[in-house]
Amino acid sequence: MTFSGLSSLILALGAVQLSNAASIKRATCADGNTVTNAACCVLFPILEDIQTNLFDGGECGEEVHESLRLTFHDAIGFSPSRGGGGADGSLITFSEIETPFHANLGIDEIVEAQKPFVAKHNISAGDFIQFAGAVGVSNCPGAPRLQFFLGRPDAVAPAPDLTVPEPFDSVDSILARFADAGFSPAEVVALLASHTIAAADNVDPTVFTDRTPFDSTPSVFDSQFFVETQLRGTSFPGTAGNQGEVESPLRGEMRLQSDSEVYPRTACEWQSFVNNQSKLQSAFKAAMLKLSLVAQDKSKLVDCSDVIPVPPTLNAAAHFPAGLTKNDVEQACAATPFPALTTDPGPVTAVPPV
Ligand code: HEM
Ligand SMILES: *[C@@H]1O[C@H](CO)[C@@H](O)[C@H](O)[C@H]1NC(C)=O
Ligand SMILES: *[C@@H]1O[C@H](CO)[C@@H](O)[C@H](O)[C@H]1NC(C)=O
């Protein structure tokens, strides 16, 4: 190439860069919000509506927890060999078929609660489910700011049954199901961080008035779930003998058999989340983005992540619940000792229902 040829190439490259810079200029929406892409402006009225009318004014409560669970149950509905459209909203579009699947027990509540919002706004069910999940998680102190991509087409068919893992499935079959949908064991552990803002309503039918949390702090996104799942189980919150449930270390706390079995299988990865808020956030954020895009063509979607609110920060260190210490840890990671944590002062307490 001649010198002048090279310099005109450099000039041309410079022009391309300039026009790229021009095209990512921020857009101002009719309501005054600014976004990177004007196509995302449609989301602000939906954001306001769900914060007020679905999430009780911006709480990290029951509807947020259920909405997060729904992002998973919709998205995991895909298998390369058995079909399903992944994060396509089929759990809402074909709710008569999918909500009766055994693994979806209890999901009908949030499906019915979300339907009017999908009907009212110009958004696909697949987009709405993932948007509501990302917005909902932003209400939980300590959570990462999840990403959101807009533009999923409507679901064309229901997901096949048996794509959603059950708490009584063997750890082999759980990890195989996730692998089939494209997730590594480390990504499964990251996704299970969701159980730090979670409770069970349907695992123990004898505790039917309230919901039983998976950790002692179900309204903040902290690493207590990873601490407490490593503590020796001593009792059931209700009765023994429920399918998919094992003993937990705290009165009032629910431990799923699946969590109790994924922990020793992934021991050092699981333990690495204890008291490491930045890892907890970054790994969950990355895994949730992947989950929100299962069987979707990302190149056809618009990145609207800047519409998602920034979650409140959390300044609490991981800790042992009152009465428990390092002696109660059932250490499964051989390579790294359990991190040094302090024990909460005061008398032993039960985890209140939510
Ligand atoms: C090993 C795989 C998993 C199993 C076996 C499992 C099982 C369960 C079960 C049995 C419940 C209680 C439901 C009820 O009684 O109402 C639950 C709740 C929940 N799960 Fe999972 N789960 C798994 C993975 C995930 C993933 C990947 C996510 C999200 C990314 C998730 C999010 C949630 C949330 C947020 C709740 C709480 C719902 C509420 O409080 O209403 N789970 N899970
Ligand atoms: C609804 O959204 C689509 C893009 O997803 C757009 O093409 C269409 O014009 C919108 N309709 C209304 C009534 O706003
Ligand atoms: C937290 O996790 C990150 C990422 O895996 C790691 O680099 C860092 O050393 C961890 N921090 C602590 C205090 O363990």
From TrEMBL:
GO terms for molecular function: heme binding; metal ion binding; peroxidase activity. Ca(2+) 1 binds at residues 74, 86, 88, 90. Heme b binds at residue 195. Keywords: Calcium, Disulfide bond, Glycoprotein, Heme, Hydrogen peroxide, Iron, Metal-binding, Oxidoreductase, Peroxidase, Secreted, Signal. Its cofactor is heme b; Ca(2+). Ca(2+) 2 binds at residues 196, 215, 217, 222. Residues 1-21 form the signal peptide. Binds 1 heme b (iron(II)-protoporphyrin IX) group per subunit. One of its GO terms (cellular component) is extracellular region. It is an enzyme of class 1 (oxidoreductase). Coiled coil: none annotated. GO terms for biological process: cellular response to oxidative stress; hydrogen peroxide catabolic process; response to reactive oxygen species. Residues 107-337 form the Plant heme peroxidase family profile domain. The keyword Heme applies. Pfam families: peroxidase, Peroxidase_ext. Its EC number is 1.11.1.-. Disulfide bonds join 29-41, 40-304, 60-140, 268-333. Belongs to the peroxidase family. Ligninase subfamily. This is Peroxidase. The gene is VPL1_4.
